[in-house]
Inverse folding.
């Protein structure tokens, strides 16, 4: 494939993004400035090591950039220490776990079907292969049951408890788990990848003081460029984390992405971002309400964040995902807790409101989109395709 052909696909992809309503809860649209800076000449530079301790020469300007990015991350999350080098959330989790425990020691984490993540102990992931993993489940109300968790902790004596989830729409009582960890002597990793934007704005409680370390991606509700971040309040631990990221888990960091993160953190630390994240939660609540009104079931009557799960009955969620894509709507099929179905046809769909909120869609748009999905679950309607196109035209991603 020659260059022009490849660029053609890039153009098609960018048009497709503009013409599509994206409800994938783990995605968002970075600002053009973050995208621009993450595509800079820093791509050319190897920067193994940390500021003033590099393994290659010529890093003097990147040292300044990395230090400033660390500072921005610390300011944004009120954290004492930050490592901004992880290429992704998965790698941040690997490094985080590895900085706290040794191979074969025990992790306690929420199971994948209930909203956990692959890197929290899934059997085919590094976390499941190299550590001894015990899962906790949600109770019959799809909540984290404190008494049950307390019993599991007493029985299993984990070294690490992982909190923070990929499809959990309720509040997490970080303080309670901190209390348990102090009493029972285990570490806490809070993976806030999905909700870090809401936490940065102060709209969702921060786990920082209740966790040994916090990991996150930078591109979900935080709306930055793609990457990972690790935060901690502990001076001794940041040294271990740094060693665990480099050389423990990765080589030279993506210097260009570190600069992109700098802009992303700066952009998330102002009143406009606060307004944006408030609207994310409002839109998410409105959408859930619309689905419930139309007779669909979720795992709760409310959502406290940017997403929720809708149970899908009598219809294959794989085909529904494909069908909605044809109409210009992206969602993802998702497990529900205790799902009997397999991963290619789980019993739910996950809806997230970050992307539509970036388009400045508010109450009316959120209701319309939810109603379109409810209609499309039941029948076909080509007018909806046109309405989605119009909505995308009125609310562009990039003006
Ligand atoms: N798989 C992503 C999600 O959709 O939640 C997180 O890595």
């Amino acid at each position: 494939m020659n260059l022009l052909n490849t660029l053609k696909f890039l153009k098609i992809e960018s048009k497709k993004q503009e013409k599509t309503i994206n409800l994938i809860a783990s995605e968002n649209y970075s600002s053009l400035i973050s995208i621009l800076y993450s595509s800079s000449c820093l791509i050319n530079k190897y920067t193994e090591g940390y500021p003033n301790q590099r393994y290659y020469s010529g890093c003097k300007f990147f040292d300044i950039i990395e230090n400033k990015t660390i500072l921005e991350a610390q300011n944004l999350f009120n954290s004492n220490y930050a490592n901004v080098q992880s290429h992704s959330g998965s790698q941040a989790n690997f490094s985080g776990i590895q900085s706290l425990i040794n191979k074969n020691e025990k992790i306690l984490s929420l199971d994948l079907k209930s909203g956990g993540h692959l890197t929290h102990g899934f059997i085919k992931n590094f976390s499941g292969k190299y550590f001894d993993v015990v899962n906790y489940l949600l109770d019959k109300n799809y909540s984290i049951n404190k008494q049950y968790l307390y019993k599991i902790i007493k029985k299993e004596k984990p070294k690490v408890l992982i909190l923070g989830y990929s499809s959990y729409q309720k509040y997490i009582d970080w303080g309670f788990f901190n209390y348990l960890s102090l009493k029972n002597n285990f570490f806490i990793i809070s993976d806030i990848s999905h909700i870090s934007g809401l936490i940065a704005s102060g709209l969702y409680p921060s786990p920082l003081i209740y966790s040994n370390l916090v990991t996150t991606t930078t591109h979900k509700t935080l709306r930055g460029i793609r990457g990972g971040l690790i935060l901690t309040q502990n001076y001794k631990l940041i040294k271990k984390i740094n060693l665990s990221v480099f050389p423990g888990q990765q080589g030279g960091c993506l210097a260009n992405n570190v600069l992109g993160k700098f802009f992303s953190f700066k952009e998330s630390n102002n009143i406009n971002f606060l307004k944006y994240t408030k609207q994310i939660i409002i839109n998410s609540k409105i959408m859930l309400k619309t689905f419930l009104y139309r007779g669909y079931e979720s795992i709760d009557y409310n959502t406290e964040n940017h997403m929720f799960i809708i149970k899908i009955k009598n219809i294959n969620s794989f085909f529904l995902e494909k069908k909605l894509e044809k109409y210009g709507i992206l969602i993802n099929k998702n497990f529900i807790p205790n799902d009997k179905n397999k991963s290619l046809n789980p019993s739910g769909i996950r809806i997230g409101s970050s992307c539509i909120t970036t388009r400045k869609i508010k109450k009316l748009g959120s209701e319309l989109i939810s109603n379109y999905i409810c209609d499309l679950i039941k029948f076909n309607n080509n007018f909806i395709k046109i309405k989605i196109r119009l909505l995308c035209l009125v609310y562009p991603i990039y003006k």
